[in-house]
Amino acid sequence: MIYTLYGDYIRHAGGSVWIGSLIRLLGYFGVSQQGVRSTVSRMTRRGLLRVDRIGTRSFYSLTDASTKIIEAGAARIFHAHSPRDTWDGQWRLVTYSIPESEREARDHLRRELEWMGFGMLTNALWISPHDYRREVEQLAESLGLCAHIEMFTARHDGFADPATIVARCWNLPAINARYAAFIEKYKPMYEQHVRLLQRGDDLEPSQYFVHRFNLIHEYRRFPFRDPELPSELLPVGWRGTEAANLFKQYHDLLADKANAFFYSVFGKPAVPPSNLQTVASKIPADLRNP
Fold first, then answer.
1. What is the span of the domain harbouring residue 193?
2. Alpha-carbon distance 235 to 109, whole Å?
3. Domain co-membership, 237 together with 258
4. What's the CA dihedral at 143, 148, 153, 158 to 10 degrees?
5. CA angle (149 as vertex; 145, 154 as ends), nearest 5
6. Is residue 217 part of a domain?
7. Pairing state of beta strands 16-18 and 57-62?
8. Pick from 134, 168, 202: which residue ends a domain?
9. pLDDT of residue 209
């Protein structure tokens, strides 16, 4: 939840937040003061947050490590299901032979390949219909595994049909079921909100913030599960695009008033001096002097 809050709000408002504001914001989701304090303390020890103390107040900012995680996640969330070129029918293969002495790096490689959307065809052979050569090269270099990894571009000549290959590599029925559940939950909420506005009624400002937060917090899991396969490889009745469109429509409906409520809590904090100018430039003009 803290990652969601930083990713969708705090990083756009200078990147630093007073612990009191953080406690109040997460309190809208039933998180206790002690829960917030223990979590940020743990994240600070792990190098994911940096603490600056001004008098008796503590302000928490993202570190380079957590910024990288959040920016990568945001790119996946808001650019997932964007149009791609027509699939050329080629598979991109990554294969490796990594000694047991580098098991930790090997496990890290597998997690990152899965996050990119690769599927494991056999134990040490991962495939994707998308060209991720640059990303795999950067990953291999960062893990020091270039000597143990090879990449290929290949055409499938037999014997299984494409649907069988896809079924071996990705659990699309499970992903599609999650998309269906997301749509079943949020489509009625979105339609009810639209009808409410059409009648001239509205929600409380805090509800905009809560609904938008929950929407993003739940949807953000999909880009890490969905390999975004070309339409030729997707099963009949795929709900991914429908869920992505619903997410965008509802997010856009909630965004402005959710932001306004966030800044009403975030306010004009006594942030560390190094962040003051950045924060001021990020806060919308009509909210700088409420």
1. 171-265
2. 28
3. yes
4. -130
5. 155
6. yes
7. antiparallel
8. 168
9. 94
258 plus 177 within the same structural domain? yes
**Closest alpha carbon to 226 in 262, 192, 277, 178:** 178
The total domain count for the chain is: 3
In angstroms, rounded to a whole number, what is the distance separating the alpha carbons of residues 66 and 7? Answer: 10
181-212: b or e for each residue (b if 16 or more CB lie within 10 Å)? ebbeebeeebeebeeeeeeeeeeeebbbbbbb
Among 20-24, 70-74, 164-168, 185-189, name the one with the lowest average pLDDT: 70-74
User: 108 and 159 in one domain?
Assistant: yes
**Residues β-bridged to residue 58:** 53
| pLDDT tens digits along 38-91 | 999 999 999 999 999 888 889 999 888 888 878 877 776 766 555 556 788 999
Among 137, 168, 199, identify where a domain stops: 168
Question: Domain for residue 77, yes or no?
Answer: no
> In sequence order, what DSSP letters do the residues of 167-204 get, joined into one string?
HHH--HHHHHHHHHHHHHHHHHHHHHHHHHHHTT----
* Distance from the first to the final alpha carbon of the chain: 27
- How confident is the model over 174-201, as pLDDT tens digits? 999 999 999 999 999 999 999 999 999 9
